[in-house]
Specification:
- The protein is mainly α.
- The chain contains one helix and no strands.
- The termini are far apart.
Length: 149
């Protein structure tokens, strides 16, 4: 029995030693896992902070680009309106010149028309006078012919 008791004590000691080693190893693994989890949390926080910084930087860059784009669009639009105003003023001046030239041409045409009518009336009057005088002349010619006979 002593041998059994001794064997039991040895096995019990081995069991306790294995249990202690297991607990020690479990404690080491738990500490190691906690350390790894802390490192992962720190890495994740660092990555998150870096992504937040990058996002902030990209947003600032995007806002700046949008602002520059808006300024550029406003400048282009203002330049276009200025060009339109210059072209409109130039067209107004040209239109005024054409209108003046048209009015002058109309005036000249009216004067020429009036002169034509006046000359036409003078011509018609002269033709009537010629016709009357021709008729008178023909009458006189007939009278002189009759007298000669």
């Amino acid at each position: 029995m002593d041998a059994d008791q001794q064997r039991y004590d040895e096995l019990d000691a081995l069991k306790e030693e294995d249990g202690r080693k297991f607990e020690e190893r479990l404690s080491e693994l738990t500490l190691h896992h906690e350390k790894i989890i802390k490192e992962l949390d720190q890495d994740q926080k660092i990555d998150l902070d870096r992504q937040v910084q990058e996002t902030t930087l990209l947003k600032e860059t995007m806002d700046k680009m949008n602002e520059q784009h808006q300024i550029m669009r406003d400048k282009i639009e203002n330049d276009a309106w200025d060009e339109i105003d210059v072209l409109k003023d130039k067209n107004k001046e040209e239109l005024a010149k054409h209108i003046d030239a048209g009015m002058e041409s109309k005036c000249n045409l009216t004067m020429i028309n009036n002169e034509y009518r006046e000359k036409k009336n003078v011509k018609e009057t002269a033709q009537r006078q010629i016709a009357e005088k021709q008729s008178d002349l023909n009458d006189l010619y007939k009278k002189t012919s009759n007298l000669k006979q």
